[in-house]
Amino acid sequence: MAIQHVMVIGAGQMGSGIAQVCAMRGMRVTLQDIAPEFVERGFSRIEESLVRIVKKGGLSESASRDTLASITLTTTLDAVASADFVIEAAVEKMDIKKSLFMQLDGLAKPDAILATNTSSLPITEIAAVTSRPERVIGMHFMNPVPVMQLVEIIRGLQTSEKTYRAVADLAQALGKTPVEVHDYPGFISNRILLPMINEAIYCLYEGVADRDAIDTVMKLGMNHPMGPLQLADFIGLDTCLSIMEILHDGLGDSKYRPCPLLRKYVAAGWLGKKSGRGFYDYR
Ligand code: CAA
Question: How many angstroms separate the CA atoms of 219 and 244, rounded?
Fold first, then answer.
């Protein structure tokens, strides 16, 4: 199936990045969020990212203008009806995702694929609220979407081979590398990444070393581009906590227990870069 029109639900960091990479590859994109200021902020993020890409020679000025021109902003779901592919990147709350997928299922063309960019919620459970579970799939991009090579493609229990193939082909058409994963808590990326981040927080909590020492060990010792505490701030400490809780609940092993210091920071509203304060101070 040729994917010409992509509908992206949610214009935050991830949704705007997904809209951008689809538009850069010549697709028509509709970017939706619930309020005009959210879609406008998402569009500004795309403009800023394109400026960086043009500056380093990754795209011409005219291709950048064409990219922006192929993105339509909206606060309604009307355009779902003409989309070949719908990807949801709204908030990570199961009840919101289920209610959205019920609506999308009712509005989308019968053969349209409904994907979710969830970082850890079960695809099988989201698919089960639709009449087309074979055409529901996880397509998990990494942040920042225009830069990161990986797309985790998560098969729900009922996802069909045809849907998997179409989404893997789409990831490749976007210049990304798809990796096939089955639907278990945290998939692969967050099942491995988040316990490492949580352990780094335990090292800080137990006084094994200070923040900078922990991040330096992982940056210089393991060649990670960011230390785990800086990366936690970048992901969002509330998101880190919610993923640890999903791993803990879903896998039932105490090795996934969230660090009390992570809980304390989230309770204080220290959510990382987005709130101005996390393990680092951004104010
Ligand atoms: N759009 C376009 N280009 C961008 C960009 C954006 N939004 N952000 C960064 N870049 C480009 C820069 O222009 C720069 O390009 P050149 O090297 O060609 O000049 C390059 O990326 C590096 O950027 P910077 O020099 O500004 O900064 P940096 O070297 O510190 O890199 C980073 C920034 C790419 C974010 C790097 O620190 C990194 O890779 N960090 C780790 C990111 C990571 O682990 N992401 C996964 C998070 S987990 C997740 O997403 C899943 C989940 O479910 C929680």
Answer: 23
